[in-house]
């Protein structure tokens, strides 16, 4: 699509400053694309770390600004339509859980799973998945995904406003790799195995 | 919408759930409640403590007593999607009668006038904690909590009214 080429050429000057980038954009229209700064794309956005209610109370329902998550770190982050749903539970999260050691060997400091759910549901799901090494965050009002234009209305599936299924490798806030499924029900480009080969 | 009150007719609306064969279904509230004695209770959120450890268990434990007093259905609604409701329901393997129904977009909660903005707690628009006794679509008892408490909306309170 023409817009994809336009974005790539706009990014090329930034890319020339960054060595060793392998760019994969499988969807044309995203406000965040390779080379973009994820924190700048969503300046006033925070995420909510998966937590129990008691933890919420004792932390005063604090949220985590994006810069605390991404600045100065190598992060692999993936987003999915919903906690407790089929592909997300059975395939997407496991593909990261099973590759934790390999991600760590590549210097990845955080592996983050985010969904448009509240942080208490995310905690309930994380415990069920026994995925202790993955950090789960809630984007409860969808503002993170909307800022990145990765939001998707899944009202037809009785989920309401949610997100695409996607994955990204972000280094010091800069998006190095971005994979977005053409439809959220698919699981082809956004898995842990794929991004491992792209880092 | 003004909050639902005694003598009101409950609005109709659509709620979602997974049936025994794990199929996603929607159902109209009126089809569940017309001509029947029904308890409808609502909670702010699945997987949150008062909801999970106090409010819901009370209704699960007292379900047989409710049935013995002529209650046909015990319906739990929350502003959560049906996948989350299904997973939450599974944490209560002893549950036989309480139906966990999803009001994912808060449409029915808004129709009842029982919405609560919990955005600062990371929850968004949710439902107040409440319990209604509804007889052939007419509200006989409406116990709605003011804030985060758990007093009037319990199973014990509604049992007293039967």
From TrEMBL, chain A:
What is the E.C. number?
Answer: 1.11.1.25
Q: Which domain of life is it from?
A: Eukaryota
Q: Which reaction does it catalyse?
A: [glutaredoxin]-dithiol + a hydroperoxide = [glutaredoxin]-disulfide + an alcohol + H2O
- Which coarse location class applies to the principal site listed for this UniProt protein? mitochondrion
Residue limits of the Thioredoxin domain? 36-188
Instruction: Name where it's found.
Output: Mitochondrion matrix
Report keywords, A-Z.
Antioxidant, Mitochondrion, Oxidoreductase, Peroxidase, Redox-active center, Transit peptide
> Per the record's keyword annotation, is DNA-binding included, yes or no?
no
Q: Which family is it part of?
A: Belongs to the peroxiredoxin family. Prx5 subfamily.
Alphabetized PANTHER family for the sequence:
PEROXIREDOXIN, PEROXIREDOXIN-2F, MITOCHONDRIAL
Quote the protein name from its UniProt record.
Answer: Glutaredoxin-dependent peroxiredoxin
> What organism does the UniProt record list as the source?
Protea cynaroides
From TrEMBL, chain B:
Task: Please verify whether the record's keywords include Kinase.
Answer: no
Is Oxidoreductase among this UniProt entry's keywords? yes
Give the EC number(s) listed in the UniProt record: 1.11.1.25
The record's GO CC annotations read: cytoplasm
UniProt GO MF annotations: thioredoxin peroxidase activity
Chain ranges of the Thioredoxin domain: 4-162
Q: What class of enzyme is it?
A: oxidoreductase
Superkingdom is Eukaryota
Picking any one GO biological process from the record gives: cell redox homeostasis
Q: Which SUPFAM superfamilies match?
A: Thioredoxin-like
Sorted UniProt keywords: Antioxidant, Oxidoreductase, Peroxidase, Redox-active center
Name the residues annotated as catalytic in the UniProt entry.
51 (cysteine sulfenic acid (-soh) intermediate)
Q: Which reaction does it catalyse?
A: [glutaredoxin]-dithiol + a hydroperoxide = [glutaredoxin]-disulfide + an alcohol + H2O
Give the family this protein belongs to, as stated in its UniProt record.
Belongs to the peroxiredoxin family. Prx5 subfamily.
Q: What is this protein called?
A: Glutaredoxin-dependent peroxiredoxin
Source organism (scientific name)? Protea cynaroides
């Amino acid at each position: 699509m023409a817009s994809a080429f336009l974005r790539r050429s706009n990014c090329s000057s930034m890319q020339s400053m960054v060595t060793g980038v392998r760019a994969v954009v499988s969807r044309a229209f995203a406000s965040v694309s390779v080379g973009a700064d994820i924190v700048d794309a969503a300046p006033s956005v925070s995420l909510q770390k998966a937590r129990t209610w008691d933890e919420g109370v004792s932390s005063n329902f604090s949220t985590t600004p994006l810069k605390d998550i991404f600045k100065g770190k190598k992060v692999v982050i993936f987003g999915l339509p919903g906690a407790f749903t089929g592909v997300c539970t059975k395939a997407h999260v496991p593909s990261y859980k099973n590759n934790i050691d390999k991600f760590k060997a590549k210097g990845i400091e955080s592996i983050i799973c985010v969904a448009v759910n509240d942080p208490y549901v995310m905690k309930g799901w994380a415990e069920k998945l026994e995925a202790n090494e993955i950090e789960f965050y809630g984007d409860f009002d969808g503002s993170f995904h909307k800022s990145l234009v990765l939001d998707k209305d899944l009202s037809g599936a009785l989920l309401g406003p949610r997100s695409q299924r996607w994955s990204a490798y972000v280094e010091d806030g800069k998006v190095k790799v971005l994979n977005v499924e053409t439809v959220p029900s698919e699981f082809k480009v956004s898995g842990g195995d794929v991004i491992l080969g792209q880092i | 919408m003004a909050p639902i009150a005694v003598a009101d007719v409950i609005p109709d609306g659509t709620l979602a759930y997974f049936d025994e064969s794990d199929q996603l279904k929607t159902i109209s509230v009126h089809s569940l409640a017309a001509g029947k004695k029904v308890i409808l209770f609502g909670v702010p959120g699945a997987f949150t403590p008062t909801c999970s450890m106090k409010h819901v268990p009370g209704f699960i434990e007292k379900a047989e007593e409710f049935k013995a007093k002529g209650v046909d259905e015990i319906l739990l609604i929350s502003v959560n999607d049906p996948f989350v409701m299904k997973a939450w329901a599974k944490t209560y393997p002893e549950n036989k009668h309480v139906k966990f129904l999803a009001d994912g977009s808060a449409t029915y909660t808004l129709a009842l006038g029982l919405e609560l903005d919990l955005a600062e707690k990371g929850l968004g628009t949710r439902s107040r904690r409440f319990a209604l006794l509804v007889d052939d679509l007419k509200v006989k008892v409406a116990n709605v909590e003011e804030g985060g408490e758990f007093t009037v909306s319990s199973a014990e309170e509604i049992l007293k009214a039967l």
